[in-house]
Design a protein that fits this description.
heterodimer, A: 328 residues, mainly alpha, two-stranded antiparallel ribbon, globular, B: 293 residues, MetI-like fold, MetI-like (chain B), membrane (chain B), transmembrane helix (chain B), MetI-like_sf (chain B), transport (chain B)
């Protein structure tokens, strides 16, 4: 979900603002209300709104269990109120800091590649004049975006298996020792980043290709007239032309630095690598649902949700202020 | 242009082509290896002889998976979730988008905010799980479908589309006294085929690929959708029948990895078959989504 939203944000420049209100002088608000059929409008909206309230807003109300010692048999009303005790435990728990640090490590590690790689690939694609070649490359690079994390996980498990996996075959061919990659803590984060790049870099080029397409072609024409080389054109026209988008994508990605990677890791990790693999939400999932530590993990969830919210709002405000573009 | 510049230009171009070929191969070769192993016999697979081409061709891995009942039942559940979820999602998105596309609708701003806020903040895993539990929806397809049919991004795409249609289209019907419901279903909807196709694909890919919701809400083995089932096959080496662990002793002449890969490839087929449409409509969806400045 998150990656999908992220790829769409920059193009959906400002989906939220409506056009200027088209007011016509109409005597009496009530008459207008009936004439436009607003009563029925609300009725049309109702089914969607009801589901939104039940499945999105009721769980937000359910966050009160973070302030309780929640017991599933006594329910929200019957469970004891304990105030901030869960949060005190949380901030005193070493495990929490380990998981938080891990979340940041993995996601910043990803960011390191997520911003430059698609931009670079887009610049390369832009240099290609053979349309068929370009089409074939794009079609290949976009493909993994549409596959689920489970399938991508399956592809990597196959590549990395100890006997007969392509990567280990190559290592063995060079005379190295075979490694059971998926079970080794020191490799897990690299595998997460590599598989994420494998899946999303191609699709990620789209925003930059759009930005390049928006560069005034006269700039290139003038540069050619002045005898600028390809490299100079890239350096002085293409890169400045997409710099805004690069910064926008980087700032936007900061907004999801706590929630990113969750589904991917939930698919790919196993007990042998929990120490280096856990992100906040996998930790909540395993201990909350699996171990029924409902209240404690909800406190973790509130921390992650509130910080994530502040990050998204701040990064958007930054983008609006400095780049005059935002998610809404 | 001088000679030196022309030569450096050729080098840049060659470099671009070369790097793109390498990156396309980096994406394509893992697929080829996956496929080759699924089609090779046990000996070459286990001894690591299979690279990008099958050795000692066999189809038994695919026969084996197709015969495993659990594959079908999870496939059926995934298809049900995808179809029901996408249809419901389209209907609800269109019905919500129409009123919200009317700039004069009283309270519109607040309502839109109510939707957009859910993109940025949620109750999180545990409260959502407890809600499903108290609604008795665990282990039903509805637990996976209902929280996702109010996808805000899809709603905004339709809303933007409606806003981009000229107001005159509705004007005549309004003067004739047509109700909003009539206008929506008789006038707006027939004009909305492209945007509906787009959000259909958004919803369908989302439901088909969804792993987390199903993992959270569905624990009953007989109700597992394809992605959850597939994960147990890949990562826990569960036999595709769902009954025992895959290892070389109990699947006879096949390498376990061939069976796993065959399951992955069969699960991939729907997306591969739809891919030409997906590429086109996802790109178009991004354009429609950005019509409004």
């Amino acid at each position: 979900m998150i990656t999908r939203q992220r790829t769409h944000i920059p193009l959906a420049a400002n989906p939220m603002t409506s056009g200027p209100p088209k007011r016509r002088t109409e005597p009496g608000k009530g008459g207008r209300f009936r004439r436009e059929g607003y009563g029925q409008m609300y009725l049309i909206l109702l089914p969607s709104l009801l589901l939104l309230v039940i499945f999105k807003y009721v769980p937000m109300g359910g966050l009160v269990i973070a302030f309780q010692d929640y017991n599933i048999f006594q329910g929200v009303r019957g469970s004891d109120f304990v105030g901030l005790q869960q949060f005190r435990e949380l901030f005193a728990s070493e495990e929490f800091y380990r998981v938080l640090l891990n979340t940041l490590l993995i996601n910043f590690y990803k960011l390191l590649f997520w911003v430059p790689l698609p931009a670079f690939t887009a610049i390369l694609l832009n240099e290609v004049r053979l349309l068929l070649f370009r089409k074939i490359v794009q079609t290949t690079l976009y493909m993994p975006h549409f596959l689920s994390w489970v399938i991508v996980g399956g592809i990597f498990v196959n590549l990395l298996q100890i006997n007969g996996g392509l990567v280990n075959d190559v290592i063995a061919w060079f005379g190295g020792h075979r490694v059971s990659f998926m079970l080794q803590p020191e490799f897990f984060r690299h595998i997460v980043v590599a598989s994420a790049m494998w899946k999303e870099v191609g699709w990620g080029t789209i925003v930059y290709l759009a930005a390049i397409a928006g560069i005034n072609p006269q700039l290139y024409e003038a540069a050619v007239m002045d005898g600028a080389s390809k490299l100079q054109q890239i350096r002085h026209i293409t890169i400045p032309g997409i710099a805004g988008t690069v910064v926008l994508m980087a700032i936007m990605s900061l907004g999801s630095v706590l929630t990113n990677s969750f589904e991917q890791i939930l698919v790919m990790y196993n007990a042998a690598v929990y120490d280096v693999a856990d992100v906040l939400e996998t930790y909540v999932f395993r201990n909350g649902i699996g171990q029924m530590q409902y209240s404690f993990t909800t406190a973790v969830g509130i921390f992650s949700g509130v910080v994530g919210f502040v990050l998204v709002v701040t990064t958007n405000a930054l983008c609006r202020k400095f780049l005059h573009r935002g998610m809404w | 242009m001088n000679k030196l510049a022309a030569r450096s230009d050729r080098i840049v171009t060659a470099f671009a082509y070369l790097l793109l070929i390498v990156s396309a191969l980096l994406v394509a070769l893992p697929f080829l290896n996956l496929l080759s192993i699924s089609l090779s016999s046990a000996n070459p697979v286990v001894s690591g002889d299979v690279g990008l081409w099958p050795k000692q061709l066999q189809w038994d891995a695919y026969r084996y998976v197709i015969k495993a009942g659990a594959f079908y039942s999870s496939l059926r559940i995934s298809i049900a979730i995808t179809l029901v979820g996408s249809l419901l999602g389209i209907v609800l998105s269109v019905m919500a988008a129409y009123p919200l596309s009317k700039p004069q609708l009283p309270g519109r701003k607040g309502l839109v905010l109510l939707y957009v806020f859910t993109m940025m903040f949620s109750g999180g895993i545990v409260p959502q799980y407890l809600l499903m539990n108290s609604l008795h929806l665990l282990n039903t397809i509805w637990a996976v479908i209902l929280p996702s049919v109010t996808a805000v991004f899809n709603l905004l795409i339709v809303k933007n589309y409606f806003e981009s249609l000229p107001e005159e289209i509705e004007e005549a019907a309004k003067i004739d006294g047509a109700s909003p419901l009539f206008i929506l279903f008789r006038i707006m909807l027939p004009l909305s085929a492209p945007v509906i196709a787009t959000i259909f694909l958004f919803y369908a890919v989302g439901f088909w690929n969804d792993y987390f919701n199903a993992r959270l809400y569905i624990t009953d083995q007989h109700m597992m959708p394809l992605q959850v089932y597939l994960r147990t096959v890949i990562f826990e080496a569960q036999d595709p029948s769902g009954n025992f662990k895959l290892d070389s002793t109990n699947v006879g002449s096949l390498a376990p990895q061939s069976i796993i890969n065959a399951t992955v490839i069969l699960s991939m087929l729907p997306m591969v078959a739809l891919y030409p449409f997906l590429q086109k409509f996802f790109l178009r969806g991004m354009v429609i989504g950005s019509v409004k400045g």
